[in-house]
Write a structure and sequence with these properties.
Elements lengths: L3 E2 H8 L3 H10 L10 E2 L1 H19 L15 H6 L8 H4 L13 H7 L5 H8 L16 H14 L16 E4 L5 H8 L3 H10 L12 H11 L2 E4 L23 E2 L3 E6 L5 H11 L15 E6 L2 E6 L4 H9 L7 E7 L6 H12 L4 E6 L8 H9 L13 E4 L8 H15 L2 E2 L6 E10 L3 E10 L2 E2 L3 E4 L2 E9 L8 E2 L4 E7 L8 E4 L3 H20 L10 H6 L5 E8 L2 H13 L6 E9 L4 H10 L2 E5 L5 H10 L3 E4 L2 H13 L6 E17 L3 E14 L3 E6 L2 E13 L2 E2 L2 E3 L3 E6 L10 E9 L4
Helix pairs in contact: 1-2, 2-3, 3-8, 6-8, 9-10, 13-20, 19-22, 20-21
The protein binds guanosine-5'-triphosphate.
Guanosine-5'-triphosphate binds next to α12.
Keywords: Cytoplasm, GTP-binding, Initiation factor, Nucleotide-binding, Protein biosynthesis
GO molecular function, one term: translation initiation factor activity
InterPro entries: EF-G-like_DII, EFTu-like_2, IF2_II, IF2_N, P-loop_NTPase, Small_GTP-bd, T_Tr_GTP-bd_dom, TF_IF2_bacterial-like
């Protein structure tokens, strides 16, 4: 006769599988779990034993739960499928019939005949869920079995109905922690039926108790359908809120452009921003107290423009490195009396890397030495060609100091914005980026946020970078309290638990609880990441990165001592041909490697190549902290070779010499067949058979080579330690003399950075 499984037998005996497993083991029937099988004889034994045991196992009043079904092998699970229709009665149960909320026996009993809402509520309070008995635990076993029978009856429909359940879904899509009620909805089955099925499978729960993954999977198998865990939305992922691809076009409306002003030192950025700000303040804001919140808006021709007050190019790219790409348009200020300078080029490359269009403001045209045409000419070299020269870059000649042509510049900004069709949906929960943030003694963490989508309101639960809170107050750049902020509006907020960082992204959440959970989790992860900081692309890990398919081009920054070298290096690097990757020079300039180069490298995941130049101390520190690969060379072809080898995955590991010991030669023997044998004493460290050796005479290295043999007395040995004598020969070298020192060393591979 076929074997029977414990859980089937338990079902038949109307007792929990766990209790039966225990009973079996106590009575010499060795079984592991509810999936174990027993012989017909053993089954008979258990049947006869079960009566006594049921009362014993339930008398302690404890929740009887089944061991995790994890151990259940797959094939057994499948073998189980043929039982999936065993509950036909229950399946026919009316789907709309109100179900008891609690699985307690008492509750069920009270409820058995006429469920009504008041009663259900009352029973919700009864937490006696999965007990076989509760307060009545000490009563006799017959009573208990009756109650169990009663319970099973209660789970079955009072009057069989003709109405059929909706068909089961093909796949049970679940999330970990769902309860019977949740599953009931998905399976189109009454929750009570699910509780019953679980009971039969040895899992005692009420409808509200959350279920483990394995339990849900077994349940699905029991219904004969596949179970699939739904990928849960990662609440800590703020980027998903920025995904505007799914945004319904009809919700989008025009938004003001966000403009960053960049340029070389003293070319007039601040003067320009001040001029624009003061000459275009809106009437209602006049008289407000100007606040430095890192950004402001002006109204011009009834249109609004947002200006960011970014302090320098490094900050611009640093924000980008943190994920904030908030600038729509870059205004490049170039002084007409000074022309294109190193930081002008830097600014161009930062803007290009961020893919923002550039409007050139040729400043200081009022000055006697001004030569705007020369500036234009210089800029053509960087791909900035004015329209009347056949290009598409907008050039405006201005005087920031005297307010000349500022309106024209604003017109051009609006024109560029119009072409870009900048849009956002104001009717959604706000998302955006941090422009700047600080700790205010009185107000706590204060952050200037730029709203990029949606509308931000006072009171919104919010996650900002790795911080969270509720928007307590919101102030604009004129110090006025505002209640809401629409797309492209910068606002200063308070109410966060900590200070976020410039460039962090923010998103408004539906409730404060989720915001807090997301914020805390993000902070935790950031901390973990900081600990196990993954390095940027380096020439050493380039090949591995390429193989992982993460890299199609190798961004490179070139710094060299003279322009000729910059160009030579750039051209040669671009000629390197390796399947699937190419060199992309994102910035090249003459001069030392500075902090701006390092931040640009960080934001663009680039490698810096220095030719005859060194990094400044600050740049060096920053590169070390952020693990930016800086390669310094003095020979061009070596630099090219290195990059090429890295791209082909052939970069030689770097070795360093490590001295392991010294031998003082005390005696010399000559053997016609072997050559010169040196007898000596190991004076420090050790000498090993495979070591490289250097022969030093009077402080001068006479010969560098390898050991030929190493012996102690007559035996070949692998190593001899300090304080011992040894005999040795040097490969292909015989001119060893007494008092020579033989230095043993090995080449140690330096771990890849
Ligand atoms: N004649 C003249 N002087 C100007 C003009 N714009 C700015 N300046 C002067 O140039 C100097 C530098 O101007 P800033 O606005 O401070 O330059 P910046 O680019 O902000 O300089 P940093 O903040 O140091 O990078 C100041 O003395 C200004 O008064 C202009 O259009 N004409």
């Amino acid at each position: 006769m076929a074997k029977e499984r414990i859980y089937e037998l338990a079902k038949e005996l109307k007792m929990p599988s766990k209790a039966l497993v225990k009973l079996a083991n106590e009575n010499g029937v060795a079984v592991k779990s509810h999936m174990s099988s027993v012989t017909p004889e053993q089954a008979a034994k258990l049947r006869s034993l079960s009566g006594n045991q049921q009362s014993a196992s339930t008398a302690n009043g404890k929740v009887v739960s089944q061991p995790k079904p994890k151990e259940q092998p797959k094939h057994e699970q499948q073998a189980n499928d043929h039982h999936k229709h065993h509950d036909t009665k229950a399946e026919k149960q009316h789907p709309n019939k109100p179900q008891p909320k609690s699985a307690s026996v008492k509750a069920k009993k009270e409820k058995a005949n006429q469920p009504n809402h008041n009663e259900t509520k009352k029973k919700n309070k009864d937490k006696g869920g999965n007990r076989f008995n509760n307060k009545n635990g000490k009563k006799n076993k017959k009573g208990k079995r009756n109650r169990q029978n009663q319970r099973m009856k209660n789970l079955q429909p009072k009057q069989p109905t003709q109405r059929k359940d909706k068909p089961l879904p093909d796949v049970l899509e679940y999330t970990d922690g769902m309860n019977a009620q949740d599953l009931a909805k998905i399976l189109h089955r009454p929750a009570a039926e699910i509780v019953k099925k679980l009971f039969m499978l040895g899992v005692m729960v009420n409808q509200n108790q959350s279920l483990e993954k394995d339990t849900i999977e077994i349940l699905a198998a029991d219904y004969g359908i596949e179970a699939k865990e739904k990928v849960q939305e990662d609440i800590t992922d703020l980027d998903r809120f920025f995904d505007v691809d799914n945004e319904d076009e009809s919700h989008l409306v025009s938004r003001p452009p966000v403009v960053t002003v960049m340029g070389h030192v003293d070319h007039g950025k601040t003067t320009l921003l001040d001029n624009i700000r003061h000459s275009h303040i809106t009437a209602q804001e006049a008289g407000g107290i100007t606040q430095a919140i890192g950004a402001y808006q002006v109204k011009y021709n009834d249109q609004v423009i947002t200006f960011l007050d970014t302090p320098g190019h490094a900050a611009f790219s640093e924000m980008r490195a943190r994920g904030a790409n908030i600038t729509d348009i870059t205004v490049l200020v170039v002084a007409a009396d000074d022309g294109v300078m190193p930081q002008t080029i830097e600014a161009i490359n930062h803007a290009k890397a961020a893919k923002t269009p550039i409007i050139v403001a040729v400043n200081k045209v009022d000055k006697p030495g001004a030569n705007p045409d020369h500036v234009t000419e210089q800029l053509t070299e960087y791909g900035l060609i004015p329209e009347d020269w056949g290009g598409d870059t907008i050039f405006v000649k201005i005087s920031a100091k005297f307010g000349k042509n500022i309106d024209e510049l604003l017109d051009m900004i609006l024109l560029q914005a119009e072409v870009m069709e900048l849009k956002a949906n104001p009717n959604r929960r706000a998302v955006g980026s941090v422009v700047e943030a600080r700790l205010d003694q009185g107000r706590g963490p204060v952050a200037t946020l730029l709203v990029q989508q949606g509308t931000l309101h006072v009171g919104d639960p919010i996650v900002v970078g790795n911080t969270f809170g509720r928007v307590r107050t919101m102030t604009n750049e004129n110090g006025r309290r505002i209640k809401e902020a629409t797309p492209s509006t910068p606002v200063e907020i308070t109410g966060l638990n900590a200070v976020p960082e410039a460039g962090d992204r923010f998103a408004v959440f539906e409730d404060e609880k989720t915001a807090r959970a997301a914020g805390e989790e993000r902070a935790k992860r950031a901390q973990e990441e900081e600990r196990a900081r993954t390095s940027h692309v380096t020439l050493d890990n380039l090949f591995a990165t390429m193989k992982k398919g993460q890299m199609k081009s190798l961004p490179v920054i070139i710094k060299a001592d003279v322009q000729g070298s910059v160009e030579a290096l750039a051209q040669s690097l671009q000629k390197i041909k390796v399947d699937g990757v190419r060199v992309d020079i994102i910035h090249k300039a003459v001069g030392a490697i500075n902090e701006s180069d390092v931040t640009l490298a960080e934001a663009s995941n680039a490698v810096i190549i220095g030719f005859n130049v060194r990094p400044t101390p600050n740049a060096k520190n920053e590169a070390e902290t952020n693990r930016i690969d800086i390669r310094l060379h003095r020979v061009i072809y070596k630099a090219i070779e290195e990059v090429e080898d890295a791209m082909k995955g052939m970069l030689e590991p770097v070795y360093e010499e490590e001295t392991i010991g010294q031998v003082e030669v005390r005696q010399i023997y000559k053997a016609s067949k072997i050559g010169t044998i040196a007898g000596g004493m190991v004076t420090s460290g050790k000498i090993t058979r495979n070591a490289k050796v250097r022969l030093v005479r009077d402080g001068v290295v006479i010969y560098d080579g390898e050991l030929g043999s190493l012996k102690r007395f007559k035996d070949d040995v692998k190593e001899v330690k300090a304080g011992y004598e040894c005999g040795l020969t040097i490969q292909n070298y015989n001119d060893i003399k007494e008092m020579d020192v033989i230095e043993a060393y090995q080449m140690k591979e330096i771990p890849v950075k």
